[in-house]
Amino acid sequence: MTETDVGALLVMDRVSLDTDGNDVISEAELRAAPESGAIKGIITERDYLRAVALGNVRWSTKVRHKL
Q1: Whole-prediction pTM value?
Q2: Is the distance from CB of 48 to CB of 32 less than 8 angstroms?
Q3: Which residue from 6, 44, 58, 67 has the least number of CB within 10 angstroms?
Q4: b/e for 19-49, b at 16 or more Cβ within 10 A?
Q5: Residue 57, pLDDT score
Q6: Spatial distance between the Cα atoms of 62 and 58, rounded to a whole number of angstroms
Q7: Which of 1, 11, 14, 16 shows the shortest CA–CA distance to 46?
């Protein structure tokens, strides 16, 4: 989160997001995420910083991109 300079992360369920089950998330599936129930929550920068302060997350957490 700190390396990509974003203010919030959208947490999504991959299985619910991939509505056609082909293991490829299309733009149409992304746009349909609210209706498919794929959106599970939002982690704000404040939530993240609180977790870092409490020692639950390291400040140097690396971002992993998996396509």
Answers
A1: 0.53
A2: no
A3: 67
A4: beeeeebeeebeeebeebebeeeeeeeeebe
A5: 77
A6: 9
A7: 1
In this model, does residue 61 exceed pLDDT 90?
no
Average pLDDT of the segment spanning 15-21: 89
CB atoms within 10 A of CB 63: 9
CA distance 43 to 67: 21
Encoded amino acid at 20, one letter: D
Beta-carbon contacts of residue 46 (< 8 Å; ≥ 6 apart) = none
The sign of the dihedral angle between the CA atoms of 44, 20, 31, 25 is positive
Domain of 23, in residue numbers:
1-67
d(Cα 23, Cα 26) in Å, to the nearest integer? 10
**Cα 43 from Cα 9, distance rounded (Å):** 5
